[in-house]
Amino acid sequence: MDSSSTRPRFCAGAPWFILLISANCKRLPAEPQSFNEDREMRRLSVYLLLFTAAIFALPIHEAVHAQTKSKRDAITIAAVGAVLDEQRDAWNRGDIEGYMDGYARSAEITFVSGDTITRGWQTVHDRYKKNYDSRERMGTLTFSDLETRVLSNDAAVTIGRWHLQRANDQPHGRFTLVFRRTRQSWRIIHDHTSSAP
Q1: Which has the closest alpha carbon to 179: 193, 162, 159, 164?
Q2: With the CA atoms of 29, 34, 37 and 42 taken in that order, what torsion angle do they form, in degrees rounded to the nearest 10?
Q3: Full set of structural domains in the chain with CATH
Q4: Would the CA dihedral through 172, 84, 104, 134 be positive or negative?
Q5: pLDDT in tens, 52-78
Q6: How far is Cα of residue 2 from the mean position of the Cα atoms in its chain?
Q7: What single DSSP character describes residue 103?
Q8: Which residues contact 191 (CB under 8 A, 6 or more apart)?
Q9: Half-sphere exposure of 159 (CA within 13 A, CB side)
Q10: CB 168 within 8 A of CB 197
């Protein structure tokens, strides 16, 4: 008798120490295809779920970010407006020193009027003291048509109108102010003021 016909054979893929089958056994089938397909479907379902969640989360994130920025900008605009209110009030009580508190105390600030550029806080201060040396010349100051645009977390620009009510005239014009957030809160670092003809 041929010994090869009775010797047990190992099925492909089966550990020899676990599975010993007879010579006429058929090869064990590989992992069922349906199991592979099911596992792949579960994997795709997870990917699809994550992708869908990301799509829905994006507009929510953008909306929250926009809302946060809007609130932050509103706080900045209010702070800038408060500086201008304090300047107006100081001017109207004849307080040049208080008015100048709205400017950053820096040698780098600039004031542009007509064809003249004045640089530095002290120089701007002295210019105001010279040109408005009496309560009559200072008159009553009002600001109007204010528009503030927030440029960044520490910078903003404001445009508007100014008007002086005095006994003999009413000078008025427009201004552009660049604000910077400093240790003393928001302060003007650049002032470009023009007078109407």
Answers
A1: 159
A2: -120
A3: 79-195 (3.10.450.50)
A4: positive
A5: 766 766 666 566 656 777 899 999 999
A6: 87
A7: B
A8: 103, 109, 110, 111, 112, 124, 175, 176, 177, 178
A9: 3
A10: no
